[in-house]
Amino acid sequence: MHSTECVIIKLANPTAHKRAWLHETALTFSRAVQYGLDIAEKEHISSRTKIHNVVYHIARELGLQSSYARMSVNAAVSLARSYFGLCKVQRHVSFPKINGSQGIGLGINAYKIVQTNGRFILRVSTSKHHSYHWFPLCVPERYHYRMPLVYGDAKLFQRGRDWYVSLPIRITTTPPVCDGEHTFIGVDLGIVRHATVSFPDCVVFFNGKPARQKREHLANLRRRYQVHRRTDRVRQQKGKETRWMTDLNHKISRRIVDLSALYPNPIIVLERLDGIHNRVHGSKKFNRMIASWAFRQLINFIKYKAAREHISVIFCDPRGTSKTCPKCGHATRSNRPSQSSFRCVACNYQANADYVASCNIAVQGLYAFAHGPTDMARLQGQTENINSRPDGAQANKQLLVDSNPVSS
Ligand SMILES: [Zn+2]
Prior knowledge:
By secondary structure, the protein is of the alpha+beta class.
């Protein structure tokens, strides 16, 4: 099995001659892509073969080498397909247009990473036969070991004055060899706590409060800038917030995966994302926070970090996980007297609500792993494994009340 991730590397200050080549090629490439889009819009098609038949020759005539021509067809096809896909779900979108910042698609045969004297150089074919441009790369040391794993179609693009290359890294992930019982680790995602992770012997909470405060602070700043019509500052702030959120998600996912790796044959169980938005109801402000909190990103980070450590990630149906008693299986809304507490009306079992949800998710994972997906109601009597976890009272003592990744 393989998983692919991308690294973005800066080109080390290309010479004027190479810059001119990059600009010119990017322009030609964009023209070819736009041509493909025009065809797709006019004929209402997204078939690769049909678009290829028309665009490829034109791209070649524009002076693109065959590999670039193929990439321009691919770019047009994927843009057209994403447009038609959005149309299907009835989003109001306009047909994509290339505005000059499309970058240059580098086919797998159009480039090579060469290492000389500890430096990495990107060798790119030009339109002439056996003629190349050599771009020294600024590869951070932590990426060095990944450079031999570069495999697949890449992309050159410009941000500001600098040029970057986005390189696909192919990582072989062998399925974990299981010698014994699996450890199911349930992860409950939320707003008040970003993540609650139930391990067999402890619970880890990732408190969402500092992040919420930070976001509110940034939102206030933005509002103030808007009053003073500083749109440049608003944009700057938005970028800052996004970067900060990404960083936070990296830290949370890293902790979850590192801790999971300490257990034998771990399987991380996550709830399917579509559930989160339906499950939580709250004030307008709360809903806005839900919408903006990057759950999908966090899930993706957990997935790829786990894949590197050969840890499986499975998904379960989140319905009922927050109101089902992990002891007796009784499921009702009344089990949740408040947002943070859980008290079973049938057996009086008490615990933190997020902890209960993460345990239920682990149970769901266990069951889904053995029998395929199911609903919580059928899980009664199947919970021995998870019930050996600390119960409510114990759990409160054993909480590793996070390890707050936000405070840095
Ligand atoms: Zn109960």
